[in-house]
Each structure stands twice: as C-alpha cells, then as structure tokens.
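fold-stage: in
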Amino acid sequence: MTETVEDRYQAELKQVDIDHHKPTAGAMTGHIVANLVVLANKLQQAKWYVKGPERFALQPKFKQLLVTVQRQRDELGECLLSEGEIVPSTTKAFTEYTMLTEAGQNKYQNASWLVDKFIHDFETSNLFVSRAIKLSEKEDRPALMQYLTSLLFENRKTIADLQAFLGNDARTGLDDEDGDDWD
C-alpha cells in the first residue's frame, strides 16, 4: 500500500509529538530553527525602524545579523535533513516551537532597549542550543553536535558584541539569571 501525502504528514505529527515529550536532539534543534525564524523577523523589524543617532551603527549590524540568522537557519535545516530529521517549515510550527516573542509595538522602542532584547533572545536561544548539544552527544550525532557547537560560539560572540554596544561586559545581566535547568 502506498502512503499518501496526508498519511506521511500525520506520521510526522505523531513522531514530533513523541519527540517533544521525551526530547531528542532533533526535536530540540527544531526549537532552535523556530527561534531563528522569529529572530529574523525581529531583526528585520529593528533594521527598518531603529531611530536616533544609534541608527547609523545599528542598522548595518542588524542587517548583518539578519543575514547570519537566515544562513544559520538554512544550514541547520540542511543538517537536520542529513540526520534524517524533519525540519519545522510552517508558520504554525514556528509559532508553536519558538520561545521568543515579537510585538509590533517594539518598532517604537529605543535602540538600547532593542539591543538588550536581542541579547536576551540570543541567550534564550542558547539554552536550546546547549541542550541540543548534550542530546546530540548522548545520541552519538557528532555532525549535529559540531554544527550546534559552532552556533553556540557565534551566538555568544553576538551577545558579547551587543553587550559592548551597551557598554557592558559579555555576561552582564545574564549569569545571575536562572541558568539552564534542563539537567
């Protein structure tokens, strides 16, 4: 018997539900993909609307980060596919799996507020990246682990750069918050 498109999709939904109740590296990485989609939307909004004297420094930075985040999403999706995983690919899935929030009124916030929110968005994303690294190591998925480790470094570098814009050290306001409670 040949599976229909609907049969395949229903099987995917069932497997995704199973994987999210007992997290796998693939499921956790799906959350990262969703976070990258929302982060790209937020960066686009900030690039378009950032105001004040900081605009001249931040608009190119937001543009560069937008390109980076879109590249990461594509590469991470390719990595998941090469591991035999399903990549979230619909607005519904992105909305369901992201841990980031967005709001239209954010375009009216000042530059420092936007930068601070991006710092926390990258930090939130790193919670999922760190967990996915541990799961990929446990599941013996070295290629996925290697990509995720590079992603973690890129995110930490971005956090340090954005913190510097605010006049802060790399971990200011982050290490004293609740840590990774996934263990």
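fold-stage: in (second)
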Amino acid sequence: MITHIVMWNLQDEALGASKEENKQVFKQKLEELTQTVPGIEYLEVGLKGEKSPEMNHDIILITKFKSWEDLTTYAEHPNHLKVVDFVKQVVSSRAAIDFES
C-alpha cells in the first residue's frame, strides 16, 4: 500500500468565504473524490478541532492506494485537478508525504 498524507493551513478568508466555511467545502470536495477517481482504497479527511493547538494544521487528508501508479492516476485525474484549483485559492501552506505502508 501507498499512503499519501497532506496537511494544509487555510487563509482566514478566501473566495468570499471564511476559513471555517472553506474548511467544510474543502472536506466535501475531497470526500467526493472517492466517487469519481479510481484507485482510492481509503480516504479520510480531518478538520482541526476547536481545542487543537493554534500551530496545528487546519485540514489533513489521509489516502491509501494499492500502488504508486494508482497514486499517480489519482494525482492526474481531472476531478482531482479541479479540487487542486480550489485548494490553490484558499490555502496558505501545505505539507505532504507519500510512503509505502
């Protein structure tokens, strides 16, 4: 299995919406990928909790794929790229890691 983890911090306001509003839209867009992008074995989206330390990231995505090829298919899929377009407009920072698990 290949595990792909991404964490983001969001801008306080973007696209005319607050950070909290964009977090919800972001989560929905990511979760919808399981319906349209082949190869996703597991997908979980977490939003920073109300009592979480300020330095923690706002959103985390944990996905699992059977192979590196499946991860590449996901990364290049048009529906994923639509989410990436949204992400680029609302995030302030990103961190990611891919590893065999």
